[in-house]
Amino acid sequence: MARPSSAARTGLEKIPTPAKVTVTLHVNGVERKLTIAPWTTLLDALRLYLDLTGTKKGCDHGQCGACTVLVDGRRINSCLTLAVMKDGAQVTTIEGLAQGNALHPLQQAFIEHDAFQCGYCTPGQICSAAGLIAEGRVQTADEIRELMSGNICRCGAYPNIVAAIEAVMFGKATDRSGATGR
Amino acid sequence: MPAAGYLGKPTSRVDGRAKVTGTAKYAAEYDVPGLAHGFVVSSAIAKGRITTIHTADALAVAGVLDIFTHEHRPKLASSDEAYKDEVAPPGSPLRPLYDDRILFSGQPVALVVAEEFEIARFAASLVRVEYEHEAHVTDFEAQRERATVSKQDEDPTPSTARGNPAEAFERAAVRVNGQYRMPVEHHNPMEPFAATAVWEDDDRITVFDKTQGAQNSRNYVADVLEMPRDRVRVLSPYVGGAFGAGLRPQYQLLLAVLAARALKRSVRVTLTRQQMFTLGYRSANIHELALGADSDGSLVSFRHHAVGMTSRFEDFQRDFVHWSSLLYRCENVELGQSLVKLDQNTPCDMRAPGGAEGAYAIECAMDELAYAAKLDPLELRLINYSDKDQIEDRPYSSKQLRECYRQGAEKFGWSDRNPQPRSMRDGNELVGWGMATGIWEAMQVPASAKAVLTANGNVEIASATADIGPGTYTWMTQLAAEMLGVPLENVTAKLGDSTLPDAPVEGGSFTTSSVGSAIHAACRAVQRELLGLAQKMAGSPLAGAKLDDVVFAEGKIRYKQDESREVSVADAMRAGKAERIEKAASAAPNGDSKYSHYTHSAVFAEVKIDEQLGVIRVTRMVNAVAAGRILNPKTAASQILGAVVGGIGMALHEETVTDQRFGRFVTRNLADYHVPVNADVHAIDVIFVEEKDEEINPLGVKGVGEIGIVGTAAAIANAVYHATGKRVRDLPITLDKLMRD
Question: B285-443+593-739 domain in CATH 3.30.365.10?
Answer without folding.
Answer: yes
